[in-house]
Design goal:
Mean pLDDT of chain A: 90
Oligomer: heterodimer
Distance between the termini of chain B: 28 Å
Strand content of chain A: 25-35%
Structural class of chain B: mainly alpha
Structural class of chain A: alpha/beta
Number of strands of chain B: 0
Largest sheet of chain B: none
Number of helices of chain B: 16
Helix content of chain B: 55-70%
Order of helices and strands of chain A: HHEEEEHEHEEHEHEHEHEEEHEEE
Low-confidence stretches of chain A: none
Largest sheet of chain A: 6 strands, antiparallel
Radius of gyration of chain B: 21 Å
Radius of gyration of chain A: 23 Å
Mean pLDDT of chain B: 94
Strand order of the largest sheet of chain A: 4-3-6-1-2-5
């Protein structure tokens, strides 16, 4: 192992000398891509094996990643990279299949809802076809099932069901020995994603209680209420997992905390870009881009990435929501606020994510 | 330089911005396809050249291998590296084609190039005393620079600079002229020298040690071929670059006339300080479209393969404002460069006497 590692390191060093890049293995990608797009080295290529329609605005992509992909745990997310009109776009989605499917058949699924005005989701719905190859990053995220088994409550809304599907499949396959309840909120009955799969799971996995609630079928919207939680047996002892639109997540968190739930027993995963309440912070400041010899003032909660782009710079970026670290950059001085958590950075030199860092006072960047 | 009022300059700025905005709005698939095609061509040529080289003991194969590798290096330096590092393809968000991280197949480090070329040369174009690319502190190409006796032999320097061009460009940031005048100290240049040694060592190791060694029995042939390929690239890139700013009608500027200048004035300086040459499609590609030096200097961050398409519009703007659009055949433009190098090797007085006689 060590020998292999040393050999690998030596080869990598040699590659850097010969090809002048830190990822020398990707040097011949432009040619390999033409011969077989699954040979590309820069990212993990994944072939679209099937495109399934879930609802009128949701599709499931069945993907076959190259074997070197490291796999994932149920409930994790992955960045995908797709080129739309010459521009590479990175987006994060939850894996909706069980890790078993990857281990046994080398397949994973992503379940993707068409977002109004969404560039990438619309492109996927309209143009992505079986046989195409897209880029896949490594899986990440800590929205994972408790081990050993504890009673679990999932509260999901809309396409927030996707990581939960992966978890339920996994739990059913390993016969997870604890009560599991899913409260699944959808606009109308027609918007239920993976209905067959859910019903099949309920039928074969006796620990699962499934409760699908349509919010917009009656005159008054029917949101999550305290009685829904009362109806969950032994709710106090449950680990709660939330995934859905912000309104649902906030509502659920309030109801749970009122019941005396501790923060560490309520797990939530991102769904849309969360924004911490930065209301009473004075934000903005002079941003100095040292590499470009530019200084730009900003006001309000504009991120460093937005400020840089407004100044005509083109830093590298990815998800623009604080996930993928493509835009990470050295901050030499100054304090920034993390837009997602509301936390302030230290004043010294450190790496920051441009897309979620908001300056508080003057900031200097190595950009 | 042609005198224009601030109002006229503002109009010039608007006219050129319109051309730029049209291209920016149209960037997409076509540009991505173009640059990827160039990258594929480069990879094929590089692999082809390296694979053929050990068989160079057959003379025609030697010529083919050396030429293939030389052209690969030209394509990578001129059409890919130079243009990518200008940020022409940053909008694609492809990490392999990003200006700030790209490293090219030549001695000069990407970082040093981004400082001396993208920033210094493109900002202070042809301002004597500020644009160190003007004569590279080796050649006297204008009477604005005082004549010194060693200028008399500058044609030899010009030949040497062309032959060792990649090393000259690599050492450009050393600012030897300022070291000699003790304006700066060697200590200040230590970080630069380290980077230079690292990249220069890497390039020399690759072409002059590694590839000859792995083909040991024919090492001298591979070494000779690699030297040849680098030489081809050096001569070609130096020639193209000299045609960009040192032709007969390319103007120079003083620091005073550019102090606090407007964007319109900067545009005017780019238009009058640069020169194009004409030729076929492949001549343009192998020059990295620096044959459209005027368009490149006005819009350094637009994808270079767009320059031929917008050239007509730029010429129309020049006509409208009465600005000379400097172009001519490659031979004609290069002829005036050689003349310029020779002419300014003699002091102004002497040239004046010659003319009077």
């Amino acid at each position: 192992m060590l020998a292999k590692n040393t050999q690998h390191k030596a080869l990598h060093w040699l590659g850097r000398q010969l090809f002048n890049r830190n990822d020398p293995e990707a040097f011949f990608d432009p040619l390999l891509e033409r011969i077989n797009p699954m040979w590309v080295q820069e990212y993990t290529p994944a072939r679209v094996e099937q495109v399934l329609s879930e609802t009128r605005d949701t599709k499931t992509l069945v993907l076959k990643p190259a074997r070197r992909w490291s796999g994932f745990g149920a409930g994790q997310h992955v960045n995908i990279c797709i080129e739309v009109d010459g521009i590479r776009r990175n987006r994060t989605f939850s894996l909706s299949s069980s890790p078993l499917l990857w281990q046994e058949e080398g397949l994973v699924t992503l379940t993707i809802k068409r977002l109004p005005g969404g560039l990438v989701t619309n492109w996927i719905h309209d143009h992505l076809q079986t046989g195409a190859v897209i880029g896949l990053g490594e899986a990440f995220g800590d929205f994972q099932i408790p081990e050993p088994a504890q009673p679990v409550l999932f509260i999901a809304g809309g396409s927030g069901i996707t990581p939960v599907l992966s978890q339920l499949e996994t739990m059913a396959a390993q016969d997870y020995r604890a009560p599991v309840t899913l409260l699944y909120f959808v606009r109308t009955r027609d918007d239920v994603i993976a209905r067959e799969k859910l019903l099949a799971l309920e039928a074969r996995y006796s620990a699962l209680t499934l409760n699908i609630i349509a919010t917009n079928e009656s005159k008054e919207p029917r949101y999550l209420r305290d009685r829904d939680l009362d109806a969950v047996p032994g709710i106090k002892a449950r680990q709660v997992y939330l995934c859905g639109p912000k309104g649902l997540m906030d509502l659920a968190q309030n109801l749970l905390y009122q019941r005396g739930f501790a923060e560490e027993d309520v797990h939530s995963t991102f769904f849309s870009v969360g924004k911490a309440d930065l209301g009473n912070e004075t934000l903005g400041g002079e941003v100095q881009f040292e590499g470009s010899q530019l200084e730009v003032g900003s006001q309000g909660d504009a991120s460093l990435l937005e400020i840089a782009e407004a100044a005509g710079l083109t830093p590298r970026y990815g998800c623009r929501m604080g996930i993928c670290h493509q835009c990470s950059c050295r901050k030499t001085t100054g304090t920034v606020i993390n837009r997602l958590t509301g936390q302030a950075s230290g004043p010294g030199e450190e790496t920051v994510q441009l897309c979620i860092s908001v300056p508080r006072g003057p900031v200097s960047l190595d950009l | 330089m042609k005198k224009m009022t601030e109002t006229q300059l503002a109009e010039l700025e608007t006219d050129l911005n319109t051309i730029r905005d049209e291209v920016l709005a149209d960037l997409g698939e076509r540009d991505a396809r173009y640059i990827r095609r160039m990258v594929r061509l480069h990879r094929s040529l590089e692999a082809g050249g390296r694979i053929m080289m050990p068989f160079g003991f057959i003379p025609p194969v030697f010529v083919a291998a050396t030429a293939t590798l030389g052209i690969a290096k030209i394509l990578e330096n001129m059409e890919i590296g130079h243009n990518v590092m200008h940020g022409q393809y940053d909008w694609m968000n492809d990490p392999s084609l990003h200006s700030q991280t790209y490293e090219w197949d030549t001695v000069c480090t990407g970082d040093s190039w981004r400082r001396t070329h993208n920033y210094e040369h493109h900002t202070y174009t042809n301002i004597i005393g500020k644009d160190r690319d003007y004569g590279y502190a080796v050649l006297r190409l204008t009477d604005d620079e005082p004549w010194k006796p060693w200028h008399a032999l500058q044609f030899i320097n010009y030949i040497l600079l062309s032959v060792f061009f990649q090393w000259g460009v690599g050492l450009h940031e050393l600012e030897t002229e300022k070291l000699r005048s003790r304006e700066i100290s060697w200590r200040e240049k230590l970080p630069f020298l380290k980077e230079f040694a690292r990249k220069g060592g890497r390039q020399a190791f690759k072409d002059y040690v590694f590839f000859p060694l792995v083909t040991f029995p024919v090492a001298p042939i591979v070494l000779a071929g690699n030297v040849g390929a680098n030489l081809i690239r050096n001569l070609w890139s130096s020639t193209v670059i000299f045609c960009g700013h040192f032709t007969q009608d390319a103007e120079t500027f003083t620091e005073e006339e550019c102090e606090g200048e407007s964007k319109g004035h900067w545009y005017l300086r780019q238009l009058t300080g640069s020169s194009n040459f004409t030729g076929g499609r492949w001549l343009h590609i192998l020059s990295g479209h620096l044959s459209y030096q005027v368009e490149h200097h006005v819009f350094p961050d637009l994808p270079a393969h767009r320059y031929p398409e917008i050239s007509g519009k730029v010429q129309a703007v020049c006509r409208k404002h009465g600005i000379h659009y400097n172009t001519g055949s490659f031979a004609k433009q290069y002829g005036t460069v050689v003349k310029r190098v020779l002419r300014y090797s003699l002091p102004e007085k002497l040239m004046g006497m010659a003319r009077a006689a």
